[in-house]
């Protein structure tokens, strides 16, 4: 399995995301230019130019007509996917940490950091009327986050939002009644409580379950309706990202030793591999090497025939599975 290496960023990758069809792959990094690539051959289509700081989060709507990015320059921007032109820029009081379109893409959510004497807040905006005049004072709904700040987010259809927090809590918000529905708080596994940080959350294909990746060395599978914990996948290093296969009962985890400690260990000790687990039996059955730093984001291709990973080394690696992957049967 020889990957295609995409080199278009100057700094560490923060997030990668496929569009619904899987023909395009979007990537963001700690430089200020999100990129879009052909996933089949790795050709770069272009960049979205306008941000002045690290781009923390990206999302694309289901028709691949609009692209959204949130950055450390205190803006959330919406772009035209075809031309790369900026449609609207929403300013905030602090860095935008997470963002996502609703299922219909008529609305979007973004959250801000708890910084510069500003509390973490969640904003719901109407993307149909967004323009450069839209700012922090013009959201449809504004939800103050009183506890730990939001570190990852999912939009469940059009009526609820699931947020992951840096203290390990996962919360579901009902937008119709504007209050918290369910909340899950993980138990202590390996590390002190400040390392529960939920780095990433991703849906399965039909939106009935989602997987979380956390600094507590685990990824967890939840029921989306009531946040019931279904499965736990344990590793020896922080998990930065996790994704669920759309056609197999497999999950892939990416992570590794903290980036600040990377120079003290070899790639073997740092465990910078993509790790494959059986979704039901929670057992690891494969690893893919390649990155020479922690993996910050992983995503299965929507057709399930490959996956991509983006790392602290600034590379995005696009993998297409060999036939042996599909012939493999897990013994139980």
TrEMBL record:
Q: Which InterPro entries does the entry link to?
A: eIF3i, WD40/YVTN_repeat-like_dom_sf, WD40_repeat_dom_sf, WD40_rpt
Q: Which SUPFAM superfamilies match?
A: WD40 repeat-like
Q: Name one GO biological process term.
A: formation of cytoplasmic translation initiation complex
Which Pfam families does this one have? EIF3I
UniProt keyword annotations, A-Z: Cytoplasm, Initiation factor, Protein biosynthesis, Repeat, WD repeat
Record's GO cellular component terms:
eukaryotic 43S preinitiation complex; eukaryotic 48S preinitiation complex; eukaryotic translation initiation factor 3 complex, eIF3m
Major site of localization recorded for this protein: cytoplasm
Compartments (UniProt record): Cytoplasm
One GO MF term attached to the UniProt entry: translation initiation factor activity
Keyword Ubl conjugation in annotation: no
WD repeats by residue range: 6-47, 48-89, 288-318
Gene3D superfamilies, per database record? YVTN repeat-like/Quinoprotein amine dehydrogenase
Q: Which residues form a coiled coil?
A: none
Q: Does the keyword Repeat apply?
A: yes
What is the role of the protein in this entry? Component of the eukaryotic translation initiation factor 3 (eIF-3) complex, which is involved in protein synthesis of a specialized repertoire of mRNAs and, together with other initiation factors, stimulates binding of mRNA and methionyl-tRNAi to the 40S ribosome. The eIF-3 complex specifically targets and initiates translation of a subset of mRNAs involved in cell proliferation.
Assembly notes: Component of the eukaryotic translation initiation factor 3 (eIF-3) complex.
Similarity field: Belongs to the eIF-3 subunit I family.
Under which name does UniProt file this protein? Answer: Eukaryotic translation initiation factor 3 subunit I
Provide the species name. Answer: Acanthoscelides obtectus (Bean weevil)
